[in-house]
Each structure stands twice: as structure tokens, then as C-alpha cells.
Design goal:
A mainly alpha; B alpha/beta; C alpha/beta; A: mainly alpha; MetI-like fold; C: Rossmann fold; three-stranded antiparallel β-sheet; 8 helices; globular
Chain lengths: 231, 270, 241
């Protein structure tokens, strides 16, 4: 174990080219996925938070439940969609990073929508009377609250990114873990571990943990600074 | 709603990421044991240098690899389970099957050797002894070529393993590497392909106990996925790969692949 | 800009019930331009609910509420409300007032001028760039007044605006309200504070358990209350039902 650790550190310090390639791809995929999920999920969460429509409670319960979507299940469903035999096969993006982005975006969309819905609904409770008094309609109110809760929403986005960066089930299935093309940190760790070849796996594991810690620290600091500055 | 959302996502993603379609590449469905042996890392760069075609290997169990190709998601299959490959051909999913190379399986076991099979040259005899001793045995259980080979060997030994297995028989449903990890942790016997075994680092108390029996030989075949059935298959690029792999040059490159000075794969294209 | 005043406001047999309880019980009244109106009553009398019914935040369960002219949606509002606890966005004081004008569709450069004027009128110009939510309670309430007044509404509703403030902040708020009253805005304010009612009000509407029990000019109300409940309230002896 200690030789594996030493070898892992050597890879990290030496900035091994393969390692860097894998880390960059992981970041590219997860950042793209979170960007798409935020673009769709934040307005969706806001709309549900301030909206009034039949079945609203059911939608909220469903959204919260979907936060726990197992990554492998998402991977399987997206694979069936993108497979040549499936409805979107003609897009030809199976086994490419694009498919991985799609799968991860679907995986974290409920997280971002559900958590932003909660944050904005809490804010709506505080602001509703005042905003209505000023004459703001529901759409205006939703947009105003999206900006006003921006720090909570940033934390939500970081949570989504953390989930995406750490998952292996979805990207393994739709990416195929192809060497040099769709191999990311998590799938490489899975592969190298299964080969009994630990240095690369450990090195990537350390980077992954460092990223998760950094993301959580950023979320915490954001909240703190926002509270102090804006109240 | 889910489908429309996914459609939008696909379109957005396509717009966002650089298009990879410009590169010349093919998708080859193969097995985890082949990939983990490192063979592809050795032969594919040679092929790419010669033809400019990038080969993207999706490594799964044999059954899954063939199923992948049945859905049209691969251009070429490169697996090692003759009966499954013939069935694949008969269904019309493949164009033609070519022998490529063979490697062999080895029986791995703990140094303590409770079933007393070490050093033997008869695999069927060894399996009978293991069952009689009730010694722990790890099976891949994942429809892979190795798994199918293992099941065939039990049958040849006159044992109906599905009926006669006891708690000593651990059906794990895992790839070769994870199954070896499990066997090392349990000090169990396990059938493995030599290639994965040689690269496997986490051996614990395990070592080769039986090898060399002709029945342990593992034949690889390559097939172009049938473009008549799956129009999206990259016919020319895929055929180029098939042709190269069975060509003198391809065969030589396969033979040149060694781990620790040992040749793993023996080319036998006709 | 329509020249028709939205006043008078007429309430006809308005009731409001929630959770099985009747909170406002068949109230009929008219709010006219001119004198500042104080809605007086004990806690739980229904003052806040009545204010919200008049401002349009609540729909009556029965009865009719009608303004003289309806406000067209998308045009600047002619009535505004200040709540007991000020609710500020996570922005600067300036931006909070500007927000109200943006919602009303007022554009630059007129918007900036109105914001500066409003902040000036409540004495908060020096805090314009400060984050609104870190201001003191009194400063936030003054900001709420500035925001409500920025559009120069015809009617300004105030729901117990100083109930959460200390005496000096209360004095500041009262002086701003008096200034708005003097400038011609119709002030309708709910309070349970007798002294405040006397200082700021021209007429008193006395509410007891959801019913409008008495209505009189301020001096007359305090000197010679006509109802037993008003009398008891003034003497600090209102029996709790």
C-alpha cells in the first residue's frame, strides 16, 4: 500500500500527462453537465416555487425523489436512448464525452431544481407580500428571487457539480470508458483498481477528494461572505 | 416531458462540445480481459500510425460486447467465445468470422492448496478435486468468454455445476480483475486468462496451480458488424481493421506483445 | 398617466374568514382623500387583515371592495404599503428603491432622480450604497418608506410600522409619515399605540374583534368615545374575549 501511495504521489508531483488528460476531461464533462442542468434547473425550480398549479405538491415530491436517482439507472436509460437501436441513435454521440455530459446533466438536474425550489420557496415566503405590494408579477418575482438567493443557488450548483464529478455509474455505461476518449477520473479509478494496479487509481482518488473538498470549502465560504456582506 | 428534455439536452450538448465526428475512428467492442491484458495499448498505435484510423475500444463482457454490436453500437467485435460468435453470425449481425489468435486460461489457487491440485496438467481432474474438497472457488458469473469457458469445463468434467454447486462456489458477476481481487481476499481457486493474471498485481497468496492443458486454450475471433443490418457501421474503416489484424503485419505485432518477457497471445489467423 | 383618483375606496359588508374563524366581520366604510386615517385596535382586532384586504393582498370571503378607478396592470401603482417588518432584497439601499421603480416600468434617467429624491426625503442619502439588509431596523423601515413613496402613490398603507422599533427610530418614522401626509399622500395607518394615533391621525377607525365599532375625528374619539369598547381600550382596560 505504501509503495502504491509513493508511486501515486510521484505521478501527481510529476504532472503525469495521462493523469492530467483524465482530470481535464472529467472537469470538462462535469462542468458542462452542471452548466446545462443549472440553465434548465434554476428557472424550473423558481417556476415551481412561485407558481400555483394543479398537481404542484406531486411535482415537488417527485422532484425531491428524483434527487436520489441511481447513476447506473440514468446511465442505462441514456444508453438506450442514444444507442443506434434507440430513438436518438442518429445523433451518434454514444461513447463520446457528449453522451457523458447528457447523462450527468440528467442526473443532477433534479438536484438543482429541487434544492433551488426549496431555497426560492423559502425566500418567497419572506418576500411574497412585499413583492406583490410593489406590483411584481409571478415571472418578475421568480427572476428577482433567483438573483436574491444567488448565494444559496451557488451552493446548490456546487453540490450538483460534486455529485457529477464523483459518480461513475452513468459515465461508465454511456461513455464506454474508452482509453483517451471517454476515460474520466472515476472510471479510471474503477478500472485500475479492478486490475489491481493502484498507483494511478490512488493518485486520481487523491485529486478527486481534493476537488470535492475544494468545492465544499467554496460553498461554505460563499455562504459566509454573503451573509456578512449582504445580510 | 423527460424525452423532450433529453432531446433539448442532446442538441445543446452537440452545440456546446467540439464535434468529434471529423476524426477517422471506429468503435470496437471487445472484452475486459483483452483490454486489461494491455494488448490493445500495444497493437492499436501501430495500426493508427499505418492507417490514420483511431480505434476506440469499448471493453465489456463477451455477452455484452456482442449485444452492443447487435444494437449497432459497434463497428467491429473482437471477442473469444466461439459458440456465441457463431450465433451472432447466424443471426446476421456479422459479415464473416476470422480466427485471430489464442491465449490460454490458467487455474489459479491459494498456496495452501486445500484441493491438492497444484502442479497437475489435467484441468478436469483438478475441477473434480476442488468440488470434492468443497474448496472455495470464485466464478466470474458474467456471461463473459472466461465464464462460458469455465462452465464448459465443468460440463466436460461431468459436473452439473448449476445443480451441484455448494457454498464453496462463489458466483460473483464481476470482471476478471475484480474477481481476482475477490479470490485473493478469500484465498479461493479461480479460472483466469493468463494475460490478466500476468498484469494482476494484487496477488496475495495466489499462484498458478494448473496450466498447459489443451482444453484451456482460448480462441479469439474478429468480425465486422454487418452494414446490411446496421447501415451506420463504418464499413471501410472497420474492414481495414479486420484485414490488418489477420494480416502478416498485424499477426506479427500481436506476437510481439510481451509482459515480463512472456508472450501472451499466439496469432493463428489462416 | 391617468388623472382619475383611485379614491374613494369603498368597502361594503366585507368579511374575511380563515381557518374557521371570522377575522373581519361585515365591515363597511369609505376611505376618502384628505385626512390621515388611523385604524386603531387591540392586537388580534383584525387591523392587519383589514389593511391587506384594502391593499388587495387578500380577497374578501364576502362583501365588496371597490376603488374609484382600477389600476391597469403594468402601470405604476397608485397605492403602496409599508409592513411592520421591512423586507429588503440583497442589494444596496439605492437598488432596493430602484427595484420598485423598475417594476413600475420607470426608466433612466428619471428613475435615478426619483431614487435620490426618495432617499433624501427620509434622510438616507448617505447610506445609498450600503447593503440594505445590514442597516439597522429603523434605517430599514425608513428605506421601506422611501421605496413606498418613490412612486408618489395616492394612498400609503402602513401596518404598525414602528411596532418593532425603539423610541428614537419611532420618532424618525413618524416625522417622515407626517411629511408625506403634508405633501398630499393619503395615509392609512394601523396601530395599537394610542399616543401615535393621536400624534399622526386626523380620524380614527376603531376595530374590535373584526367589527368596525366607531369612527370619529381624532380629538373627539379620545375626548368622548361613544362605544364601550373604545372607552375601555383608551383607558387600557380592554376585556379579552
Amino acid at each position: 500500500m505504501s509503495e502504491a501511495l509513493t508511486a501515486a504521489l510521484a505521478l501527481l508531483v510529476g504532472l503525469d500527462a495521462k493523469l492530467i488528460e483524465i482530470v481535464l476531461l472529467s472537469l470538462r464533462v462535469s462542468v458542462s453537465a452542471v452548466a446545462i442542468a443549472a440553465l434548465v434547473g434554476l428557472p424550473l425550480g423558481a417556476a415551481i416555487a412561485v407558481g400555483r398549479f394543479p398537481g404542484r405538491q406531486t411535482v415537488i415530491v417527485l422532484l425531491n425523489a428524483l434527487m436520489g436517482l441511481p447513476p447506473v439507472v440514468v446511465g442505462l436509460l441514456v444508453y438506450l436512448l442514444l444507442s443506434r437501436a434507440g430513438p436518438l441513435g442518429a445523433l451518434g454521440i454514444l461513447f463520446t464525452p457528449s453522451a457523458m455530459v447528457v447523462a450527468q446533466a440528467i442526473l443532477i438536474l433534479p438536484i438543482i431544481a429541487a434544492l433551488s425550489r426549496q431555497a426560492i420557496e423559502d425566500a418567497w415566503r419572506e418576500y411574497e407580500e412585499q413583492l406583490r405590494s410593489l406590483g411584481a408579477g409571478r415571472v418578475n418575482a421568480a427572476l428577482t428571487l433567483l438573483w436574491d438567493t444567488r448565494f444559496s443557488l451557488l451552493t446548490t450548483i456546487l453540490a450538483g457539480f460534486g455529485r457529477a464529478a464523483a459518480e461513475v455509474g452513468a459515465v461508465m455505461i454511456v461513455g464506454g470508458n474508452i482509453d483517451g476518449v471517454t476515460r474520466v477520473m472515476t472510471t479510471t479509478i474503477a478500472l485500475e483498481t479492478s486490475k489491481g494496479d493502484l498507483p494511478l487509481a490512488l493518485g486520481l482518488g487523491m485529486i478527486l477528494i481534493a476537488i470535492v473538498i475544494a468545492v465544499n470549502a467554496a460553498a461554505y465560504l460563499t455562504k459566509e461572505l454573503a451573509q456578512r456582506r449582504y445580510g | 416531458m423527460g424525452l423532450i428534455r433529453r432531446l433539448l439536452l442532446s442538441v445543446a450538448v452537440l452545440a456546446a462540445l467540439p464535434s468529434l465526428a471529423q476524426e477517422r475512428f471506429i468503435v470496437v467492442a471487445s472484452t475486459t480481459s483483452t483490454e486489461q491484458s494491455g494488448l490493445f495499448g500495444h497493437i492499436l498505435p501501430v495500426f493508427q500510425k499505418k492507417t490514420g484510423i483511431q480505434v476506440r475500444v469499448v471493453a465489456l463482457g463477451t455477452g455484452q460486447a456482442l449485444d452492443l454490436a447487435r444494437r449497432g453500437d459497434a463497428d467491429v467485435v473482437f471477442v473469444h467465445a466461439r459458440s456465441a460468435e457463431e450465433k451472432f453470425l447466424a443471426e446476421g449481425h456479422g459479415v464473416r468470422r476470422f480466427d485471430v489468435m489464442y491465449n490460454d486460461f490458467v487455474l489459479i489457487g491459494p498456496r495452501a492448496d486445500p484441493a491438492k491440485v497444484s502442479g497437475g496438467g489435467d484441468i478436469l481432474d483438478a475441477l473434480k478435486k476442488i468440488k470434492a474438497a468443497g474448496a472455495p472457488f470464485v466464478s466470474r458469473g458474467d456471461k463473459s468468454g472466461t465464464h462460458i469457458a469455465e462452465l464448459d469445463l465443468w460440463k466436460l468434467a461431468g459436473i452439473d455445476i448449476a445443480k451441484d454447486k455448494g457454498p464453496w462456489y462463489r458466483d460473483t458477476g464481476q470482471g476478471m480483475g475484480p474477481a481476482l481481487n475477490t479470490a485473493a481476499a478469500m484465498n479461493a481457486y479461480i479460472l483466469a486468462d493468463r494475460g490478466t493474471w500476468i498484469s494482476f498485481k494484487n496477488r496475495g497468496e495466489l499462484a498458478i496451480v494448473v496450466e498447459g492443458d489443451k482444453r484451456l486454450f482460448n480462441q479469439y475471433g474478429v468480425m465486422l458488424v454487418n452494414p446490411a443490418k446496421h447501415p451506420n457501421v463504418k464499413k471501410d474503416l472497420g474492414q481495414a481493421f479486420v484485414d490488418w489484424v489477420i494480416s502478416t503485419e498485424g499477426q506479427k505485432t500481436i506476437a510481439e506483445y510481451k509482459i515480463g518477457g512472456e508472450q501472451l497471445f499466439f496469432p493463428n489467423a489462416k | 398617466m391617468s388623472k382619475t383618483s383611485i379614491l374613494p375606496l369603498r368597502l361594503a359588508e366585507v368579511s374575511f374568514a380563515a381557518g374557521g374563524r371570522t377575522i373581519i366581520d361585515r365591515v363597511s366604510l369609505e376611505i376618502e382623500t384628505g385626512p390621515s386615517t388611523i385604524i386603531l385596535g387591540a392586537n388580534g382586532a383584525g387591523k392587519s387583515v383589514l389593511m391587506r384586504l384594502m391593499h388587495g393582498l387578500l380577497e374578501p370571503s364576502a362583501g365588496h371592495i371597490e376603488w374609484n378607478a382600477s389600476e391597469r396592470p403594468g402601470t405604476p401603482r397608485k397605492q403602496a404599503m409599508v409592513f411592520q417588518r421591512p423586507v429588503m432584497l440583497r442589494r444596496s439601499a439605492y437598488a432596493n428603491v430602484a427595484y420598485a421603480l423598475k417594476v413600475a416600468g420607470i426608466r433612466e434617467p428619471r428613475r435615478g432622480a426619483l431614487v435620490r429624491e426618495s432617499l433624501e426625503s427620509v434622510g438616507l442619502s448617505h447610506l445609498a450604497r450600503r447593503s440594505a439588509r445590514v442597516l439597522s431596523g429603523g434605517e430599514q423601515q425608513r428605506l421601506a418608506l422611501a421605496r413606498a413613496w418613490a412612486l408618489h402613490p395616492e394612498v400609503l398603507f402602513l401596518d404598525e410600522p414602528t411596532a418593532s422599533l425603539d423610541p428614537s427610530a419611532t420618532r424618525e418614522i413618524e416625522s417622515v409619515i407626517k411629511a408625506f401626509d403634508a405633501a398630499g399622500t393619503k395615509v392609512v395607518m394601523a396601530t395599537h399605540n394610542l399616543g401615535q394615533a393621536r400624534r399622526l391621525g386626523d380620524e380614527i377607525l376603531f376595530l374590535d374583534r373584526g367589527r368596525l365599532v366607531e369612527r370619529a375625528p381624532v380629538e373627539e374619539f379620545f375626548a368622548k368615545p361613544r362605544s364601550a369598547q373604545a372607552d375601555a381600550f383608551i383607558r387600557g382596560e380592554l376585556p379579552w374575549a
